[in-house]
Specification:
Blueprint (H helix, E strand, L loop, with lengths): L16 E2 L7 H11 L20 E6 L4 H13 L3 E5 L12 H10 L4 E5 L5 H11 L5 E3 L3 H24 L2
Parallel strand pairs: 1-5, 2-3, 2-4, 4-5
Length: about 170
């Protein structure tokens, strides 16, 4: 009997939705950190942009207050040249009764390429990811819990520091 497939991975084991670190294969987490490492210095350059996500639309959907995290994701996407849309949830149709999935479907119809989601309801991010997979949309979603995005940032910083120590002392 086959085990239940991780909803964060496609049938080939590639990451399509980053919802939690729990249950992700170690090699996937290492791949995330290795992929992020070269981009860490973009903020220190004179021109703080690279064209990696040019033409891609990133929708920030924060259903709970989180100015620092929303701004951090907005800056990161803009530095990768993405078009960033910060949805004002308080003024959106969800405040008038539109369901979460109806909102997602409407944004997908507007050619959203990626969602960054922060939602207070447990399971909301998994619901969105499952819905996107079921409808055949290949949109990527990122919806880590606050402690997890901090752990990934800490791991990235630790990796950079370790690399500097190795280089300095020729280890």
């Amino acid at each position: 009997m086959m085990g239940k497939r991780n909803p964060q991975l496609d049938a080939d084991g590639r990451l399509v939705h980053l919802l939690t670190l729990e249950g992700l294969p170690a090699e996937t987490i290492v791949s995330i950190l290795d992929t992020a490492a070269p981009f860490a210095s973009i903020g220190e350059r004179e021109v703080k942009k690279v064209p990696l996500m040019r033409g891609k639309a990133v929708f920030n959907l924060f259903f709970e207050s989180s100015t620092r995290t929303r701004t951090t994701f907005e800056i990161a996407a803009k530095r990768l040249s993405a078009d960033v849309i910060n949805l004002n949830i308080g003024a959106s149709s969800t405040s008038k009764g539109e369901s979460l999935l109806d909102t997602i479907d409407n944004l997908v119809a507007m050619n959203a390429d990626m969602f960054v989601v922060r939602h207070g309801q447990s399971g909301a991010a998994h619901l969105i990811a499952s819905h996107l997979q079921a409808t055949g949309n290949v949109t990527f979603s990122l919806a880590l819990r606050p402690d997890e995005d901090t752990r990934l940032a800490d791991a990235t910083t630790l990796g950079q520091t370790t690399n500097r120590i190795i280089e300095r002392y020729a280890l």
